Amino acid sequence: MWRKALGLVLRSVQYKETDCILTVLTAENGLMTLKARGVRRNSSTLKGACQLLTYSEFTISEVRGFQNITEATAIEMFPELRMDIELLALASYFAQLAETLSQQDAPDPALLPLTLNALYALSKLHKKPRLVKAALELRMACLAGYEPQLDGCTVCSSAEPDRFCVSDGVLACASCLASDGVHLPVSPPSLAAMRYIISCDDRKLFSFDLTGAAEKELCDAAETYLLTQLERGFSTLDFYKSLALR
Q1: Per-domain residue ranges of the chain
Q2: Is the pTM of this model over 0.70?
Q3: What top-level class would CATH report for the domain 2-76?
Q4: Architecture of domain 79-244
Q5: Gap between the Cα atoms of 55 and 111, Å rounded
Q6: 3-class DSSP assignment, residue 214
Q7: What distance in Å separates the CA atoms of residue 170 and residue 167, rounded to the nearest whole number?
Q8: pLDDT digits (tens, 9 = 90+) for 113-136
Q9: 193: helix, coil or strand?
Q10: Nearest-angstrom CA–CA distance, 193 and 220
Q11: Are 2-76 and 79-244 equal in CATH topology?
């Protein structure tokens, strides 16, 4: 008995002498754990399609409790990412985020295309990595059930508040703040970008631009908000930041 699945390789772990265990994100089945037998041999026909951050079509058979890859064809390998260590590190962070937000055998039709579109924006469209990262983080927060409330100040209802309350995911004016916690500054341009990201069509998610202080505000807000809501850090993010600071 065999079946086919389209998926993005998020993680690869060496197993025995020549095998690998892959964590693959699919639209129909969520996360899948697949065994690629002999993939580390130079002669393996599976090698290219089973690389990290490769979107492939897999033919899968189940043997003794393992889901084994019998055939695999690469659809998109994002080679540009493998030629730039910073882009590769950022893409690896995207993969770790996607794995964190998905579950085994739990379909999530939106997560796979979102991750693929982010990788495409980095590698093919040459969008600003910081803005791709911020847009992905905010959108993933929404998919995880943490959509921020960005209509206006939660106290006075002003349409243009200047603080983003990270713990609650709401806006406030500096003069209205009464609670402790992290309150990050937002200006009209960065706030407009945040509102755009959480509401725009999927296909237009990365079709915006920011520069200067507004870009930093958006990036700080998106990253801090997601990490706060998930209550964890990411080793891949730490590595990416270490490269960006060189």
Answers
A1: 2-76, 79-244
A2: yes
A3: mainly beta
A4: Up-down Bundle (1.20)
A5: 14
A6: helix
A7: 8
A8: 999 999 999 999 999 999 999 999
A9: helix
A10: 13
A11: no
